Amino acid sequence: MSEDEITKENSNEETEDRGIIEPCGEINEINNDLEEVSRALDEATRSLETTVQQAPGCSTAVVSGLSKQIIEEMNSIEANCLVSFTDLNVQNKSAAVNPFLQREAKEALARVISARGQTLVINSAYRTLPQQLMLYNQYRNGQCGIPIAARPSTSNHEDGLALDVDDPRGWEPFFIKQGWRPLRGDPPHFDYKGGGRSDISNIAIKAFQRLWNRYNPNDRIAEDGDCGQATLSRLNKSAIAGFGVSTVETASRLTTRTLRLSKPYMQGDDVRQVQEALVKVKISVTADGVFGSGTDKAVKQFQQQKGLTADGVVGAATRIELGL
User: Per CATH, which fold does 259-322 belong to?
Assistant: First the structure.
């Protein structure tokens, strides 16, 4: 979408978009497709100058580098504005999932999972500004089969209080008891309605504005937390790999994908890195760069040793224990 189109629509669509119910099931199916995610992360590390407006493919995992920078900046503005929930018994569907919530929502989620005693599969959680803009661009441009998407800063996934999950009806009574509510018309979606909630949307906007100004001192914008035309146009111009990313190695660190057993098998240097780290801690596995059944078994063995959820998924918690 062009800057002129965004400008024209800002005034007459913002109020309307606040009432949009996004079809999360359809969006998540597209966003978490493992082949799409893998291609997205490969593209993000190769094309350091590709912008959000130019973002290729259909998975918002392609903007992971920029997304991670914004989340870090949000937490520098307000400590623990968002907290990770990767330490809970959860499985994030793909690298497009940002596993963050507001603190009170995370604490309630921990009680939900404990009460049911099962692993919760997360299809979507916190959605960053660049992710939402990418979805909005796809919707407005008729791309990727996105039927509708809210304007950036107006989606309920941008407040750190929303989750989309597998088996929503099975989880519903446990969520409801802990202050979460299902969203009518959007089956996988739950919103936290309990105590201690905050409106953090302006913090996310201000975080992006601060980052933009830091790296673009000759094209500064107001750091006012308002998602107006000036902010959206700069967001569209921002590199998907993130600000100040000048090397493939830096981009790779920012766009680390979640590894798991899948069909086709996930392959790459990141898989080999995990395998080599497992070998270093005396766990038998072939370091061939292919995440097959042997690697899945080795990861689960390591996770058991470390007291992690033994699901074979190499996310943030497992990487930290491996020293990666």
Answer: Muramoyl-pentapeptide Carboxypeptidase; domain 1 (1.10.101)
